[in-house]
Each structure stands twice: as structure tokens, then as C-alpha cells.
Protein: ABC-type glutathione transport system ATPase component
Organism: Streptomyces clavifer
Amino acid sequence: MTTTPPGTDTSGHTVAPEPALEVTGLDVHYGRGRRRHHALRGVSLSVAPGETVGVIGETGSGKSTLARAALGLVRASAGSVTVGGEDVTAYGNRRWRALRRRGVVQYVFQDPLRSLDPDLTIEDSLIEPLLIQGTGRKEAAPLARSFLDRVRLSEDLLGRLPGELSGGQRQRVAVARALITEPRLVILDEPVSALDSANRVQVLEILKELGAAGVALVLISHDLGSVAGTADRIAVLHRGELVETGAARDVINEPRHAYTRLLVGSAPTLRTAPASRAEREALRALLDA
């Protein structure tokens, strides 16, 4: 009996892997008539398995709305959202709960305390998603230790409460909790913005390892510099529109859009001479024109 190798069709040709996330022509708006606010306009973005995409923009750019749409927390006004090959555009709350329960997509909050119950030990927080899926506690406990090790934390922390951990430790526990169901896609909201430099480096290194292991990651951030060394591609949102996307190196070294140039110039770690105030004001004027 002849079998078809993974990643090929019946003729032996290589088949591109199904995207972990695919957003096509996505519009999201709130309100009606004159009070209508367009949070997203015609956004299209695809994230492949094992790919890390940084979604960058200032407050009000639409980056958080994009994340919420990919998680079923806001409904699309137009366009489509596909997660793990499943068109979820018209899903209601019940079908979204079932999808999350299966662990297809996970979310890591900017504040890890929002991901962790303050009254549960770290072990209980880690195994809770597995218990919801029907895994027995006896089988789940070793996985808690394994995933804690994966984010470079000692199993000595398993019996502690979230409030007894540092901010960096809590964020890594939140990442481990998101990974324990082996999701196709993990969306992280400002994953390092609240951390000191040492913890920031550690968390970004862990995220880079996850991408290499095949997990699709979407990093939501206002700071281009914080994801520059981790993201494979960068997508820049401005006033609800996707104004630039490309390989991280290209977007940083040769930004095409004025808004991207403004973000690069505002991140001293990305250039030897940060943009002067006059340069930033000139770019702002160009954007407002």
C-alpha cells in the first residue's frame, strides 16, 4: 500500500502548510451612523505554523481589536477569520468556547495575573486547561512539571501562589499554561512590556524557541524594538489599516511607510541615531496630511 508523505499531495508535489491564522479583508466597526468607529479596515494577514508575527502599532491602531477578532471576542463586520483551518467568522459563543476548550488557540495577557487565578497554586493553574479537556490529574501533573521546565522555571514553584512569584516568573507561567494544551496558535498581548530587561530577554528567548518548535505566535506590541529580534515577519497597523508588512529585517532596515519610519525612529535599539524631535514631527505631519 502506497502512502502520501506529510506535506505532499497525491502527485508528490509539496503542499504549503495550512495557516494557523488567516484574516482576510477584515473590517470591525462599532456603533452606527455618525457614531460609527472603524477599528479595522480591510486587514488581511496570514500566520503559518511555526511562524512568529509581530503586530505593531500605537494605542488605537487596531492591534488589540485584531487579536480579539482572532479569539472570537469581537465579531467581524466584514471579511473572514480562519483559525487552524477552521472558518470561525460566524461562530457564536458556544462554538468559540468549544474551540478554546480544545486548545486550538490560546491567549497570554499583558498582565499575567489576568491569566492566573490568585487562589490556585502554580501546579493547579497549569493543569486546569487539561482537566477541562478531560485529562486525568494523574496524567496532567507530569505535564505541568515538563512545561514549567520548558519555560526555564524550577518545579519548586509548583506549590506556590502567583502572588509569591516575580513578574517575570508569572509571565513565564502564563506562557506555559497557554502551551500545555499544545495549541496551533498563541496570541500574546505586550508580553514583555511590564518586565525588566533581564526578564524581557529571557521571555523573548523562550518565545523564539517556541517558534522553532512549530508553534505559531502573534506578538501584539506598541514597541517595534521589543519584537525585532523575535519576529519572522512584522505587520504594522495604523488607524485600523495594515500599512506595511514584510520580513522583520526588511521592515526595520528599509521601512516604506511614514508611520513605520516613525516607529523605527522612536526605537533607539533599532538604529544608531534615533530620530530627532524634528524628524518625528515631520513624519507626524506627513501622516496627518
Observations:
- The longest strand covers residues 37-47.
